[in-house]
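DATA SHEET
Item: assembly model
Revision: 1
Owner: S.N.
Input lines:
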Amino acid sequence: MVTSVTPSQTRTTGPRGDAGAGRPTRKQARSGGARNLRARTYSYWFYAPAAVIYGLIFLVPTVIAFYYSLTRWTLFDSEFIGLDNFRQFFSEQSLVSGLKNTLIYAVLTSGLKVVLGMLFAVLLTGPIRSRGLLRSVVFFPVLVSTVAVGITFSVLLQPDFGLVATVLSKVGITSPDWLGDPSLALLSVALVDVWKGVGLATLIYIAGILAIPKDYYEAVDVDGGSAWTKFRNITLPLARPATFTVILLSLIGGLRSFDLIWTMTGGGPGFSSDVIASVIYKQYQAGFYGLATAGNVVLFVMVSLIIFPLFRYFNSKEVES
Amino acid sequence: MKISRSKFAATVVAATAVVSLAACGGGGDAASSGKTTITLLTDNAETTVKPAKAIAEAFEKANPTITVKLESRPGGADGDNLVKTKLSTGDMADVFWYNSGSLLQALSPEKNLVDLTGDAALKDTDPAFLPTVTQNGKVYGAPVGTVMGGGILYNKEVYSKLGLSVPKTWAEFESNSDKIKAAGLTAVVGSFKDTWTSQLFVLGDFHNVASANPSFAADYTANKVKYATDPTAVKGFEKTAEAKARGWLNKSAGSTTFDQGMKLLASGKAGQYPLLTFPVGTLSKADAAKIGFFGIPGDDASKNGATIWPGNGQYIPKTSKNIDAAKKFIAFVASPAGSEVYSSAAPPTGPYMVTGSKVPADAPPVAQDLQAYIDAKATTPALEFLSPVKGPSLEQITVAVETGQTSGKDGAAQYDADVTKQAKQLGLPGW
């Protein structure tokens, strides 16, 4: 979603501004002769490379995807079957639990990232030693490949000889089967996701907090307010833009999350940690390319329906504050 | 202005030409040097790569003008995808080793593969293999590797220590399992981290289904019988559920991988493991000697038998530029000499589908056990070799059943729905 929002935005600000200027020139050129026209339109060539690439790898596939979602497609040939794929996709037995899991996963990871990110940011903007080092340490997991994180944690969370189980048994706790127990698997993956993603949330919050003018804090000091007052009445409200950014980014990330879940549980055991993206991927894996494409269209619409209203709401709020 | 624009156009044209030239450069023209190079694509399992290497070397020695280049791909559903993509883009190796049966049917063999009907390359092929690589009366593949059995691998030492004998009926299997559990061992290994291993109670039970209803496969393809409503077919799912309900499974079955499962079985910490026979080939000789095989028992001891997987095929894509060399290669693999080379690199876990080749005397016990079933004519090919209809979600469904999330009956119904989806996506008649 982020990617599709950004290009369309740049398109509306960039080329459109120029297209507005370009149209009257074209009219002028028509009366002014061919040479003039060439001179006035040559600048379009600078758009050509970007436009061709954008068209080829974004626009064309998107349009084609909408067509293929209406076909029975084996990669070798396709046959138009109307809306059957959508009918089939909506009757998919794991779809309902997948939807539920997607929402749980998105809300849980997003919520934890907001809370923990804020706490870490307050800590790391405070007067503590080796702040720079600690900031990098929090951010480090963000830089590691998700698949590597998934594989590593699958090993760490192994219930018989994994590191987590070994440490827990030292303090007398029997480790549950983190990824093998159907009721725990999704939560375990969500926690790993938070570990991996909280660094980015922290970074955004640090930037947000550092942007708050010192005067407000000094004002609280003068009035004799406590650290809590500073946090409650200054940091929290004035870091609101950061909060919105974190919620939006992590919610989008959570809704389309796939790689971590796939490497850690494969949607299992059974269907217990399936999310929309993994349900779709399994259709693709099974060779149901038309059906998988229909699933992607559904995912696209769903994410748009959730994110756009949220985006507008946050934007309107930002103007008020 | 004019100059710069034509320059721009020329650059674009030049760039396009370079790209397309580079794309063409990929095709190998080794023929000019008098030597032909063929490529061979196999899955990346150790039990495949090792014999593939050995066979390629032996073949090169026998045919000095041909070089074989090995490529490997992932197994499972990712591998299926890769094979389909390579075929559809015309990028397939000259020879590829791939499943026979329903998975082959999904490759549109008529369109993509070289027709081998009556070809000299198949002269040593056991005729019993042909139905699994035939579509509309045309043969597209030659056999590679051994027949696999699908049923229960058991630890012979555990069995003899507890005084158990190989069960002929499900009731005997139940009492064996309870005794193993009572001895403090894992009765049945579950390894749900590798989901495919959970399907064996269902897929391996097919011999019992077919002996109760010989026309099941045909009726199944024609959408006349269903797993949930056929009284024998549903039992496979109920057996799956029983493993959890009676506490036979290992404690951390949900996180156990198939490698770890094999270790549990070989070490004697577990007694039985529903699986295919091929993993025994990855064990050390001493460990492999401890492990035996029996088919999933049914209700009737007199009809006791095993479900078999007739082995993989080798195929030549129509896009191959070295079809003659490729045919020579597959003929070598599917010959008694080729089978011997294969056995030298990976201990055979079953007989070969090649006329005139015998299971070597020092092969692991599972191969002998499987041979005994075949000699007694008490085997049935797995359903996926008799019918193109196989639902893609069976492994998730059986995991859900074997972890107690779904009942056996519900699992069977879910699988029926999954199968309907597959049939519709394949556009099969009658669905």
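QC remark: Chain A has two domains: 2-46, 93-320.
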